[in-house]
Design a protein that fits this description.
CATH superfamily of the largest domain: Aldolase class I
Largest sheet: 10 strands, mixed
Radius of gyration: 21 Å
CATH class of the largest domain: Alpha Beta
Strand order of the largest sheet: 1-2-3-4-7-8-9-10-11-12
Oligomer: single chain
Structural class: alpha/beta
Number of helices: 12
CATH topology of the largest domain: TIM Barrel
Bound molecules: S-adenosyl-L-homocysteine
Order of helices and strands: HHHEEEEEEHEHEHEHHEHEHEHH
Length: about 350
């Protein structure tokens, strides 16, 4: 077991294993999990069913993943973007988005920064600073639950900072912990991973044999647009990505979302819609259009409302399911990386 791991990096089974290694009964692992996940405490000392001496030992050998809220911004629709500081002072953001019927969606980060270098993305400007640990992903959920007490039933989307499939070992461990039937109990169907299109990662997600939701940010169905807007496109032809996504959808019996950030004059014309229809008709796909949220350092603008509506209409006329992320509300979450960027301290 990794000695730098915190208790938040471990599954319930691993917590049990740890207890045995420490000379305690295995069921102490369940007590620990109950305190961490069910009670949701951020303080090891509050897990009073555990003997005080054991709590002290755990504090010394492992401790909990530290995540401190250092900023927040609320959008008109009630979405709240939280800026969290990690133990090493790095900052990430997570967004809590209220949905219909009292459900919430939590948008989580998987890395500090990102190396995919998409032209329109704020996080990309940071480069990849470091990977998040599984515990840091889990701790985002626990912190958001604490900050939004009515959100215990939240869906999770890995659509915050970073490329989750570029950090797949830690992601996989986080998914195990989050979906653990003895722990956090979040069903695979309530967790979506969003990727810029890393085929190996998509295949590995498929091998996990759990029906995680998958979203693929193809950005455009025209390869030349993709090359212009997302350097990662040069690595893999779109057909391969789409084939991997379709295979994933069939295997998990889930519809895979193809996401396109719409940018005026770049990928919002009728021909782009036609190309998208062709690609999206080739598998179990639905479309999500995200009008660009303008960022500093990239001159692109979102298409005007009518043009977005026209694009969506065309796609729907081809009998595809197509949603448009509404600007006012989802703006906060779409503006991937912006809060962390703005508050970054000079180094
Ligand atoms: N790396 C993963 C997850 C993080 S990005 C991925 O690419 O899917 C999450 C989504 O936000 C992606 O669909 C991305 O295209 C979109 N996005 C990034 N910057 C944006 C911006 N400025 N405006 C609107 N959407 C943006």
């Amino acid at each position: 077991m990794d000695m730098t791991a915190t208790l938040h990096d471990l599954t319930v089974a691993q917590l049990g294993e740890l207890m045995v290694q420490m000379g305690e009964p295995r069921w102490r692992g369940r007590q620990l999990a109950h305190g961490l996940y069910h009670e949701g405490t951020g303080d090891l000392d509050a897990i009073t069913p555990l003997p005080a001496a054991l709590r002290r030992r755990l504090q010394q050998t492992h401790g909990l993943t530290r995540l401190v809220e250092v900023g927040r911004r609320r959008a008109p629709d009630g979405s709240v973007k939280h800026l969290f500081e990690l133990a090493d002072g790095r900052r990430i953001e997570s967004v809590a988005i209220p949905m219909e019927r009292k459900r919430w969606t939590f948008c989580l980060s998987s890395q500090v920064g990102c190396r995919m270098a998409c032209a329109f993305c704020a996080t990309a400007r940071m480069g990849r600073v470091r990977q998040l640990t599984a515990g840091e992903m889990v701790a985002q959920v626990l912190a958001l639950r604490r900050l939004h007490p009515s959100s215990q039933q939240a869906n999770l989307v890995f659509m915050g900072m970073g490329e989750p499939l570029d950090n797949i070992d830690e992601l996989e461990q986080a998914l195990r912990i989050l979906s653990d039937p003895d722990g956090m109990k979040i069903g695979a169907r309530h967790i979506t991973i969003s990727t810029s299109g890393l085929v190996d990662g998509i295949e590995r997600l498929g091998r996990m044999e759990r029906p995680w939701g998958l979203a693929v940010s193809i950005t455009s169905a025209r390869q030349d647009d993709r090359r212009r807007l997302m350097p990662v496109a040069a690595q893999t032809p779109l057909e391969e990505i789409v084939a991997a996504a379709a295979a994933y959808g069939r295997k998990t019996r889930r519809t895979v979302t193809l996401e396109c950030v719409l940018i005026a004059g770049e990928n919002d014309d009728d021909d782009a819609a036609k190309a998208l229809i062709r690609v999206a008709s080739s598998g179990p796909f639905k479309i999500n259009l995200i009008p660009l949220n303008p960022i500093d350092g990239y001159p692109g603008r979102p298409p005007d409302r009518d043009r977005v509506a026209r694009f969506a209409d065309r796609v729907r006329k081809a009998r595809l399911v197509c949603t448009v992320r509404d600007s006012a509300g989802r703006e906060v979450s779409a503006a991937c990386g912006q809060l962390a960027q703005r508050s970054r301290r000079p180094e």
